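Listing S7. Sequence submitted for prediction.
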Amino acid sequence: MFAPPRRVFAKRSSWSGIFTLMRQLYHFWLSPFSRKVRLVLAEKKLDFELTAEPVWERRDDFLLLNPAGEVPVLKEEDGTVLCDSSVICEYLDEVYQDEPKLFGSDPKERAEIRRLVAWFDGKFNREVTDHLLGEKLLKRFFSTGTPDTKVLRAGRTNGAYHMDYIGWLFERRNWLAGDHLTMADLAAAAQVSVIDYMGDINWSKHPRAKDWYMRIKSRPAMRDILADRQASFPPSSHYAELDFE
């Protein structure tokens, strides 16, 4: 049911001959916060290995990395361990300053980006993803009961309002927070891709949001995420299709 951890490879430094561990991301394949970090790493063109972490098992070795027992956790090549997706993403944008600059270049732009990141990480996740992913999948993994149809209905209703908001933003801007791709788009794509995997978005009712998502789906950073599959929980038929057909 759950994919085993991938192997972590060592690589040789070209100048010293010393072996170092590759950057490692502990993740859950349908965690929007894990996906958010994966998108940042891919946009920054940083090499990394994925390790699937069954958080419901509360493994001692993982709790030593993050006592909160939550993914994502990023272990850098020098052994630095970073927890919490927002912390990890800001760290990566500060340390690896090549384009794209995901948190903006001036205070007003950064404020709007952070507002939208907080919207998708908090409000969208709480009102939509937690309801749908929690009921459809996490209850099964944590053995906490069967899906509640009222909660599922609330998640889908809330999701429609959020998709309308994405469409409203995209009608007025080139990307969600302004003229170029930012962390706001990646935070939104991480949440939306999870909901779309489960088939809980009626795209015909949200054409502008669909236009935005088609645009971000076509980016190379999304390729691995669109390749995600779970045999016991397959994606919607259009999940990996760029034209949604």
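Caption to Listing S7: primary sequence and predicted structure tokens for the chain studied. The chain is about 50% helix and 10% strand. Residues 107-142 form the longest helix (36 residues).
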